[in-house]
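Researcher: Predict the fold of Zn(2)-C6 fungal-type domain-containing protein.
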Amino acid sequence: MKRQRVEIACDKCRGLKAKCDGRQPICGRCEGYGFQCNWSMRRRTAAQEKRDDGADQLLENSPAAAVEQLANLASYHQMMESYEMLIDEIRTKLDASDRLALDLNLSNIRRQKPRDLAHGQLPRHGSEGHQQPKPSSATPPSYVGKVSEIHFIRAVHRCIQGPELSELAGEPGYGSPGLSDHLVSLNRPLLLPPKEEAYQLLNVYLSTIHIAYPFLSRKQLLEELESLWNKDCDNVEYQPWRALFSFIFAIGSYYTSFPHRKESPSSQHFRYFQQGLYFSYGIDSNCSLISIWVLLVQCFFLLAICQTDRCWNTLGLAIRMGQSIGLHETLTESRSQQRRTWYSMYVLDRLLALQLGRPMAIHEEDSHVELPSLQDQSAFAMDANEHTLDDIHVSSMMAYFRAVVCFSSIVSQVIRELYRPSQIDLRPDQMLHSASSLDQQLAQWKEGLPRHLRFDRGHTFERSISFKRQRNMLAVKFHHLRALIYRPFLCLPLLQAHNESYMDLLMQHKHEISHAEWACISAAQETAKLLHYVVDEQSLVHDFPWWQMISCLICASSILFVAEAFYRDHDLLEGRTSASCVRDDAEICLQVFKALSANSDAAKKAADMLEHLSHLRFSAVVASTDVPSISVSDIPAPLVPGCWPSEISNSMEWSIQFLDPTTFSRGDSHFNAPHL
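Model: Structure tokens for Zn(2)-C6 fungal-type domain-containing protein follow.
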């Protein structure tokens, strides 16, 4: 008589792979041999039964090699189960800190487990000689809109090389490879850096990103960092703070990796970043202010390593969480930090929309938030009673943030009016009028800046590094946006040769078009001139908005390389500058990218892309084209090169902080902000 199969076996019989009669509480085999009989009461699921049935069928029909593989798979699972039981036993004997370190490493190890083995499946065999296609390592191209410098460079390539040759050469881009390529295995605990180093890394964040995006409180950060060594590591409520500091340490570690040294580049910042991801797991299920801060700090690290697409998605989540807790309707003065958080997301949203040419996530008509107060000291003061910064200094620090909020509203208008996805309903003459109007708004914004933020004036004997860096950031933003305002009218005979309406505009508004062309070129030159006095990579990274600089420098240098080639023999440059000066300014940007390429994949790709662009020649187009021009006397003084004081030159380093990343296609946007 065939023995009936029992539904569940005791733990001892399962471990020995012996037949169990299923009798409880003590089975017949354990009773006979005197074993201790335990029951885990784990009922087999239908999926497990199905897998076992499938395995039995494979065992009957597969060749000997497959049978051996299945046996090895069963042995593997038994071994892994033993290891898991051993780990669980050891874990209970560890203190809280060691348990957290163990969990951190285990999560990384389990992610690397082969999927087939993790599910207990035997890999399928196709027909003989058939090989399964390997997953492509190439990232699918993502969408970039008309305002993106990648879109502009692509348009130039297609006009010069033709669409067929351009496709063969590949799309231009400077995005960093997938983040998973950089993540390292956490084979040892990396919970906290030494205390002194932790404060140094925090200070890097406070002196670069925090002075531009003050959504956090300096005093609160210092208090939480001090208590970081005393908190219960297993306290779930404190996990977001651990995630936030891990991302801050990642930023500080990356910034201090410049200049590049002879030894192999450090991956410490990626270790901190991976740890931040571990501590922030499931953060999207908890809409709170601290969760939004974690996502925002994560965004700045992603920008620094040119993971712009991932930053775009992360910021989108932060904005939705902010709307979930009502940050878009913050009205009371007591909620100053909520207002700073909302406007930090607003400014960053405009920045990414400008870099990628995609629609903005925050619309001004859907929100009503007062600007942060100039007297709000909580962002920069170290102590509630003894302020290390006097009231005037704090007010001046907040003035920068308010100025950038108003600047971002102009960014919104530039994207909507000049770079909308479809320009069917917007005639070129309307665009020209809009460009002139937006340029006037930008000039008025600059004139309205407080004296200590005027990057076009001298600041003799001033010692504040923070003010110097803020002026550098404003200078980069101003010249970059001004170049973008007039870029649609650059090289019209080349880039719009088949657009009849643009050719009509060129003939009917020669004076205005020449003004727009020169304004675009001069703004790009002013951006490049900010680099003239940068002494090394570290000063570039710390004194300029690093998260934005790669995008701004590619925009400026691409305009200059194209202008040098297109207007080389034309009188547009006569009396203003020369083709050689234009090329020299473009070469400065290229040299910066080459210097940064040792520590930045994006800078290396940008250098390669611009190197290729620098060899393009438009002689055939220029020779057959009549491009109108105007005299220097017709151009307002601020547009002429050399009008800006040399004081702003040392600020270029910090502008690099807003690195631009990833892939390329096309887009649009929205929103307005209160005026100062």
